[in-house]
Sequence to fold (371 residues):
Amino acid sequence: MLGSAFQILRVEGIPIKVHWTFGFFFLWIGYIGNKAGLSRQGIITLGIFALVLFVCVVLHELGHALTARRFGVQTKDIIISPIGGVARLYHMPEKPAQELIIAIAGPAVNFVIAIILGVYLYLFTVQGLMPVGDPEKIFDVSSNFLPALFWLNTALIVFNLIPAFPMDGGRILRSLLSMRWGRKIATRWASLMGQLLASAFIAYGLIKGDYILVFIGVFVFLSAAGEYRMVAAEVLLQTGVVRDVLRSNYTAIYQDDLMHHAIDLHSRGPEKDFIVIDQWGQIQGVLHEEFIEDAKKKSDDQAPVKEYMSPSYESISQQLSLKDVLLLFQKKGYSIVPVFNTEKMVGVVDRKGLNHYLTARTSFWQNWTRK
Ligand SMILES: [Zn+2]
Fold:
């Protein structure tokens, strides 16, 4: 979804990037202006208005990013696309109150802008808050610029406060629900709201032939589901233990066996990584899938397993959290680890099994009925 984005400036050390599809936004503006029959001056004003809108969106995202920084959460970058901006934080604070404040900070920026514009327009201009003239051609009247900006910021506040993922309102809802029901259940509800809303966008867009709305709907739907999957995985990693993913049915390979045997097992069965033992059943190392593929590529199937295996391995206990197992896989590059219960080996955990478990247990619909 994100693809390539170009950095245009840095604010407070945070890269501000523009997604390439933002170009379409200007084409669209030109198209709208033309269709409405704006004068050349009007189209130029509309273009400038689009740039100011861009600035408002950047300020909104900076509101999130700089507030997050106060809680010690850094921002990777801010990406602006035709359907809005996103401040990509390195992580979300798990304290609901902090997430709440970070989520509110974005719309709060637009609120401040709207208040300043509103007060100025109301007290110091003859025209006041409302644009004048033909509603199709408001940008042909230059005094409409600030009222339009006022209403646009108001619209940004309202849109962002819709209580559904991935809007800020969804985060606000999630943090409020989290305080009472925990993060996972809260996220599930906020995601469901997002998906219902997205479905309504898509249906309405299709009926009215408004394909931009359909596009936004699809984006909202996918984001809402993705957010849930991420949080569910986080929770699962924290609460799950090795016992949940333990595979007690495993094949061990003797270190004096030939690679031929390993290649055979690898291509025939579901097992892809193996524990290597000696004739007394003591673990000597592990044979990762990559090693087997390597031997296969070199047609080295007559080599003994001990030439290909890695002697470094780590055994873990059944009570270890899944988060620690994942870290072990990521940091040490293991793809399989033996599991011990006191002195006795009771099974293995492999990377594939863990990934499979996480994918299956974090699917939005499958999980709906589970606690
Ligand atoms: Zn926001």
Summary: The two ends are 31 Å apart (CA to CA).
